[in-house]
């Protein structure tokens, strides 16, 4: 019995195989989604690289971001692989499932008076990447997926309101301002472009990866990252207060990983915004919540393995 777990993001697709549903057969692979036409194309490429017979795959479990536009059709996958079971899981539900058994070595404590997750309380996982995701973990280990990144932002300062007004110019669908407008990869880039335009400057960086790789000393990039961390803190405050998720806040996603990896994560600005001056009982609970960066970029694949075991029972 061979299980294939697949996390399809807006930019990358992550894949791994497992025989026992508990551990990976080999190290997971991370591939650019743009090089494939479909999920079937990507799966075939991966399975051939693993030197695995497609017909030996018994289960395929898929977590998919809404920022990826591939159509997942079970009939099309079965036509290639003949698998008996195909399971689709919300992408951030998969992250949350993976965190149910995360090791301490994969968590970096970055704030909060508690040092360890309190599993007797609800917990939250939020991530910033191609999009913005949010899920909750209940004390009974049930996972609640959400559309949290699509909430109308609770902005505090006139500068934040003005920024989101300007960010609307980058949207063509006529939808309301949402946290994802600022907290996604494109969001950071668009904040930077907005600041350059305001200051009558040309944009030096054309994509988010280049901006984070090379823009550390650029004043407009520095200002953009300050706005990003302010808004990330506002979002996190709402996530904790609305969900009562004071057991832990887990931060994941490609943008968070890059910011931490490049030593660009602005803890001072993030926590100042997270610990905004709310009523004392709320502020006490928010400040007590341990905040972690999740080091394991394949945590969603581990969550899919956990889901495969649940499906078997």
What is the CATH-assigned architecture of the largest domain?
Answer: 3-Layer(aba) Sandwich
The neighbouring-strand order within the major sheet is 6-11-10-7-8-9
Average of pLDDT = 94
Give the DSSP E fraction (strand runs of 2 or more residues). Answer: 15-25%
**Estimated structural class:** alpha/beta
SSE run: EEEHEHEHEEEEHHHHHEHHHEH
By DSSP (H or I, 4+ residues per run), the number of helices equals: 12
Report the top-level CATH class of the largest domain: Alpha Beta
**Helical proportion?**
40-55%
How many strands, what sense, and barrel or not for the largest sheet?
6 strands, mixed
The total beta strand count reads 11
Which runs of at least 5 residues are low in confidence (pLDDT < 50)? none
Number of domains: 2
* End-to-end distance: 15 Å
């Amino acid at each position: 019995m061979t299980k294939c777990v697949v996390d399809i993001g807006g930019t990358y697709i992550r894949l791994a195989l497992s025989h026992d549903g508990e551990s990976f057969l080999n190290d997971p692979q991370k591939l650019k989604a743009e090089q494939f036409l479909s999920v079937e194309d990507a799966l075939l490429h991966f399975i051939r690289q693993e030197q695995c017979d497609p017909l030996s795959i018994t289960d395929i479990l898929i977590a998919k971001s809404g920022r990826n536009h591939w159509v997942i059709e079970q009939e099309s996958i079965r036509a290639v692989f003949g698998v008996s079971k195909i399971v689709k899981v919300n992408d951030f539900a998969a992250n949350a499932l993976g965190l149910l058994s995360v090791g301490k070595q994969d968590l970096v404590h970055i704030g909060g008076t508690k040092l360890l997750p309190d599993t007797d309380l609800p917990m939250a996982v939020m991530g910033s990447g191609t999009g913005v995701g949010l899920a909750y973990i209940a004390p009974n280990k049930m996972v609640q997926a959400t559309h949290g990144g699509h909430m109308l932002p609770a902005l505090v300062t006139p500068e934040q309101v003005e920024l989101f007004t300007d960010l609307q110019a980058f949207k063509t669908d006529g939808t309301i301002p949402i946290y994802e407008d600022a907290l996604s990869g494109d969001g950071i880039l668009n904040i930077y472009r907005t600041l350059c335009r305001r200051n009558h400057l040309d944009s030096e960086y054309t994509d988010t990866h280049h901006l984070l790789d090379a823009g550390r000393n650029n004043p407009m990039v520095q200002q953009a990252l300050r706005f990003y961390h302010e808004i990330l803190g506002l979002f996190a405050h709402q996530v904790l207060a609305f969900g009562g998720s004071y057991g832990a806040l887990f931060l994941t996603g490609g943008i968070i990983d890059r910011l931490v990896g490049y030593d660009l994560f602005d803890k001072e600005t993030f926590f100042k915004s997270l610990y905004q001056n709310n009523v004392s009982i709320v502020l006490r609970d928010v400040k007590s919540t341990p905040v972690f960066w999740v080091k394991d970029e394949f945590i969603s694949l581990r969550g899919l393995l956990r889901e495969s075991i649940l499906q078997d029972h």
